[in-house]
Amino acid sequence: MASQVKSRWADDEEDAALEAQRRREKELKKKAKADRQRKVEEENLRKQNAATAMDDSINGHDGVNGESERPSKRRRLSPEQHTATIDPVPVRLLRFPAPEWGPCRHVDNFEKLNHIEEGSYGWVSRAKETATGDIVALKKLKMDNANDGFPVTGLREIQTLMASRHENIVALREVVMGDKLDDVFLVMDFLEHDLKTLQEDMLDGFSPSEIKTLLLQLTSAVEYLHSNWILHRDLKTSNLLMNNRGQMKVADFGMARYYGDPPPKLTQLVVTLWYRAPELLLGTEKYGAEIDLWSVGCIFV
């Protein structure tokens, strides 16, 4: 066997001396760390004893032969002891009610009472919910182009009604289905009158105070729509419903659209003729909230 050749760079004595020096330094560091830890524990124990003696002197618990008897209740100073004596409380998750997805109810849950009117985008009837007895307005959407899918006018009406939760805007309660796929009904609040019929049947016109009250309700609803970037585009007296207590609600959102700034390109064939703004009559394709305000002025007149 070949003899093992020693490297000329190796120095066993020097390496051994360096290793011994490293061990001594490591032991000194461990000893210094242990001394610091011991001093910290002694200081904590001294503070704890001083606090206990102060509590005993304040509460007057001096025992026999100079010994202090333990008080019945003593403030715990050690957080470790405190947490050890208390049982952990089980964590409970808070549950909040949230709407769930589900199928639409059937129209058979409502009993039709009488027909009210036929609008541009549906037939409206008065109905009673059999479970609660509530009187509601049941609007059946016109599905003339059902072969091409759900009509966009119906989608817009549902979308804008759901986004328009205001005391002077008719509330959409739910959407129900019939036996056929094209039988879609909107369940809304029922109000006994509309402004047009009231004006035609009244012997005397509204008083100035009543006009102010009605206009305040109308402008409040229109302001809410415009603040949510919704154009009604068909404000007229027949679309303003009223109950027997004089509360007015804006209805018929079949022509309602979202708009923006700059205004999008829209059709000018909107709003009943006698309430239509001049720019619509002249064929403009870009307009905004001003066309609803013109209709409000016509209603006021």
Automatic annotation (TrEMBL):
<keyword id="KW-0067">ATP-binding</keyword>
<keyword id="KW-0723">Serine/threonine-protein kinase</keyword>
<keyword id="KW-0808">Transferase</keyword>
<dbReference type="InterPro" id="IPR008271">
    <property type="entry name" value="Ser/Thr_kinase_AS"/>
</dbReference>
<dbReference type="InterPro" id="IPR050108">
    <property type="entry name" value="CDK"/>
</dbReference>
<keyword id="KW-0418">Kinase</keyword>
<keyword id="KW-0547">Nucleotide-binding</keyword>
<protein>
    <recommendedName>
        <fullName>cyclin-dependent kinase</fullName>
        <ecNumber>2.7.11.22</ecNumber>
    </recommendedName>
</protein>
<feature type="domain" description="Protein kinase">
    <location>
        <begin position="110"/>
        <end position="301"/>
    </location>
</feature>
<feature type="region of interest" description="Disordered">
    <location>
        <begin position="1"/>
        <end position="86"/>
    </location>
</feature>
<dbReference type="InterPro" id="IPR000719">
    <property type="entry name" value="Prot_kinase_dom"/>
</dbReference>
<dbReference type="Pfam" id="PF00069">
    <property type="entry name" value="Pkinase"/>
</dbReference>
<dbReference type="InterPro" id="IPR011009">
    <property type="entry name" value="Kinase-like_dom_sf"/>
</dbReference>
<feature type="compositionally biased region" description="Basic and acidic residues">
    <location>
        <begin position="20"/>
        <end position="46"/>
    </location>
</feature>
<comment type="similarity">
    <text>Belongs to the protein kinase superfamily. CMGC Ser/Thr protein kinase family. CDC2/CDKX subfamily.</text>
</comment>
